[in-house]
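Slide 14.
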Amino acid sequence: MANPPDESSPEGPGPARVSIAEKIRQRVGELSPSERRVARALLTGPPTIGLESSVRLARFAGVSGPTVSRFIAELGFSSYAAFQRALHEEIAARVMSPIEVYHRHQEGERSADVLGTSARTLGEAVSASVSGLDPEEYRRAVSLVADGGRQVLVIGGWFSQLLAGYLASVLRELRPGVRLVGPSASDRAGAIADIGRRDTVVAFDFRRYERDTLEIARAAQVAGGRILLITDPWLSPVADIADAVLTAQVTGPAPFESLTPALAVVETLITSVVDALGDAGRDRFERFGEIAERWVHPWPDGAGKAGRETAREVAADPPLQVQ
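Slide 15: predicted structure.
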């Protein structure tokens, strides 16, 4: 079921951009009922509906032409033509192959200051990703993960499985009922078979997007479960059915997708989950730590008690400092 490695990176280092789909999602609560119909048409309709004429988009959404014009202006575009140019660029970027991204990077100009460029590029991407999170989407994401009555299934893609594994590992220390869905076909088929109404699926899906991730999300939707998607600015198809969507930039210094901004989003999410769990999370973490000390990382035979006593003595009576 898993696809070959096909999660690619953006065209290269540069300023972080908010996709049109993300702009729409962020503004849905501010729109009039007729403008929301245009938003739904663009988010859930055919991917190229926005490349049709404004008259055809209005007809598809069941609104008037002036409504479409107002909606486009709300998104910050000076004209419908400017909106279409931006949308065309995003559609092209969304389906860009990893090979094309690699070639563009190799053909482009690169600074000799690799360290400085990397620090600046990653720093900007991390800052844009965390500060750009929509507060309402973020609140829903925290609620879905912190709800102890829900089992949490975490799934990643070819590369983003690393992020899924990290999130699942930390969540296990804070709350019960956390399951990492492995990349094998049997693991993913089993997850689809097991998903229930009280489950939350946390899906990591970056371009190009993986079919089995969408299948698991659809299974969760059919079963009545909830879906938290962590994706790139172009938005995985899972966004159409997700209950909460967190986006992260993928800009990095290499011709490959950077996971650094997404990791920053994950660690920010964990921080809020800790706060939401409160005493229950702390008690779980302490119990987990006691088990880990005895079993996961045991002291050498005969050294456990002596080693812990020595550590306590040092902490209680630190050595004198030579002036």
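Speaker note: Residues 1-16 have pLDDT under 50 and may be disordered.
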